[in-house]
């Protein structure tokens, strides 16, 4: 967040000791609205992604969605997006009640889809996070693992 300050703040900050800063050093309503727009809350309980079954989602730019992955066997899997959208795909493993980053791929407007190949273990829970940067013509994209 950026706020304009009067000249002299850096050279003579003691003048602000009595009156303080205006606006105060807190988040404005506009700051909070933009934060929610760019960092939306995630669903409380993500859906479980089933192998070989694409999950189709309609997202707007900046939105993201999580899917749980619970592999039936320990082996290398591929997790990938399909569609014309510009996406970021990140893989986490649930550990100690929180996500631990494992891998990620950003197709960054290239003529390809985001894809992660990673060894997953039976009995563990993983989170695939899909974030849409640019929706293309529709914003519709899909995620699948196999």
Brief overview:
Helices cover 10% and strands 41% of the residues. The protein starts with 15 loop residues before the first helix and ends with a strand.
Question: Would you kindly provide a written description of the structure presented here, covering whatever features stand out?
Answer:
Strand 5 (86-95) and strand 6 (98-106) form a beta hairpin. The chain has 146 residues and is mainly beta. Helices cover 10% and strands 41% of the residues. The protein has helices at residues 16-19, 29-38; strands spanning 47-48, 55-58, 64-69, 75-82, 86-95, 98-106, 115-120, 126-134, 140-145. The mean pLDDT is 85. The strands form two sheets. It has a five-stranded mixed sheet with strand order 1-3-8-5-6, with no helix packed on it.
What labels would you give this structure?
about 150 residues; mainly beta; four-stranded antiparallel beta sheet; about 10% helix; elongated
How is this fold's topology laid out?
Layout: H1 16-19, H2 29-38, E1 47-48, E2 55-58, E3 64-69, E4 75-82, E5 86-95, E6 98-106, E7 115-120, E8 126-134, E9 140-145
Parallel strand pairs: 1-3
Antiparallel strand pairs: 2-9, 3-8, 4-7, 4-9, 5-6, 5-8
């Amino acid at each position: 967040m950026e706020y304009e300050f009067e000249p002299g703040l850096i050279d003579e900050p003691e003048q602000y000791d009595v009156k303080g800063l205006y606006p105060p050093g807190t988040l404005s309503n506009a700051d909070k609205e933009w934060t929610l727009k760019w960092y939306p809350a995630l669903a409380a309980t993500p859906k479980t992604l089933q192998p070989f079954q694409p999950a189709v989602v309609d997202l707007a730019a900046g939105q993201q969605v999580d899917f749980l992955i619970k592999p039936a066997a320990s082996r290398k899997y591929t997790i990938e997006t399909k569609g014309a959208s510009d996406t970021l795909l990140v893989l986490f493993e649930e550990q100690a009640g929180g996500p631990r980053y494992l891998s990620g791929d950003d197709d960054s407007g290239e003529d390809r889809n985001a894809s992660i190949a990673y060894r997953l273990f039976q009995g563990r829970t993983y989170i695939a996070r899909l974030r849409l940067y640019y929706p293309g013509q529709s914003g519709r994209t899909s995620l699948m693992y196999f």
